[in-house]
Specification:
The structure holds 2 protein chains of 2 kinds. By secondary structure, chain A is mainly α. In chain A, about 70% of the residues lie in helices and about 0% in strands. Chain B is about 80% helix and about 0% strand. The longest helix of chain B has about 35 residues, at about 10-40. At the A-B interface, helix 3, helix 4, helix 5, helix 7 and helix 8 of A face helix 3, helix 4, helix 5, helix 7 and helix 8 of B.
Chain lengths: ~250, ~230
Amino acid sequence: MNFLIDAFGFIVDPANWSGETGIGGRLLQHLVITGLSLLFAALIALPLGLLIGHTGRGRGAVIGLTGAARALPTFGVLTLFVLIGIQFGFGLSLPPVIVVLVVLAIPPLLAGAYSGVEAVDRQTVDAARAQGMTEWQILTQVELPLALPLIVGGLRSATLQVVATATIAAYVAQGGLGRYLIEGVQSRDYVRAVIGAILLAALALLLDGLFAALQRLVVPRGVSRGSTRTTKTGSTAQRPSRPFDATRTPVTEG
Amino acid sequence: MTWLWNNLDLVLGLTAEHARLSAIPILIGFAASLPLGWLASRVHWLRGIVLTVFNVIYTIPSLALFVVLPLILGTKILDDLNVVVALSLYAVAMMLRGTIDAFGSVSGDVLQSATAQGFSGPSRFWTVQFPLAGPVLLANLRVVSVSTVSLLSVAALVGSGGLGYLFTNGYSRSFLDEIVIGIVFTVLLALVFDAILVLAGRLLMPWNRRAAVPTRIPFLKAVIPGSAR
């Protein structure tokens, strides 16, 4: 228990928060790495996922991709990319790490966008079409708002993955809260490792809580919470009201 | 490739260790999620509590959990036990929602018919509810299995990651081949585990040959956190 007390003592001491290698600096690095990776991944995955959900094409590819991504040991892929990056003259810089994190974040984002759109009741879509909406209007004004909770769910999942993997990225790159953990383990300074563990767990739980709240906020008015069902006609019975609420994707690394 | 032939003993030894260290959490996770999931599927207030607790555990990055567990368990930092316990907790967390859904998906009519036929509590569970929940349980177990095998390699950073050793060692020596071989063997091991599970499913649930439908949904399920959590 002394370790815990020492670790908390370190964390609450404001002197340890300043500077680039202080807690504040490490936290900022972690958030920047996470944010950048999520941004790039979202730019790729969200349009693609919406398109797949809307057209229904490429569904098998998404399922295959998410399955295959799960089997890949992220730690191995990370070390591999960073070594390749070094050989191509990037040095020990961030781009190779971000590339891996982007690749990692794409499957949950893609699955969230695609399953969110697909879970929208077909009758709702047909009704929109019958009202004369164009396909673009259906996608942006009907399917997208109704899919938003699941899209945010995918984002939440991806965020957890990236935050966790950015931790082990500290092994190969220089930044992020993972440095405390790695340095602590490597130098057998257990207090330092526990400091890293506490800060990381707190960050992950905080971000997860924020996204959980956001998930509730984005449910459109008139839709019962946690359900994308909008009509109460008989055929909705075939469609589970919460098709994909579930165990989350394993935090592959970190 | 020459590196692989020269170091075949090392790679095979690490693969065996990887198999052992990931098989134990998979089995513990499965076994522990059954009673928990069954209880949670019956007792409404318990469901929320159990799911929340495991979601919180699940949210903690694995490296952080590996490091904190010795404080709770009283183990050494480099003890295999930390890794096994951490991965078991993750396995339960991953498995739990599926287990609750699996038991909940068995229709009440079927259970009542079974009771009417004279099945008592435990025998009704083992001979009616458990087999009917089987396909969904298996689908979830497959996800847990693949994820655990892949996740274990992180533990190389705390000294017991099986094939993950090839990543830390390869990285410190700037040797790409070693890392690639580590990745290939990890993926192969995950595939072998998956094949064993599928085969076991076929043997134990011969009525369920065309189980393509239930295996699909949990795959996606496992990727998206609940909209209604």
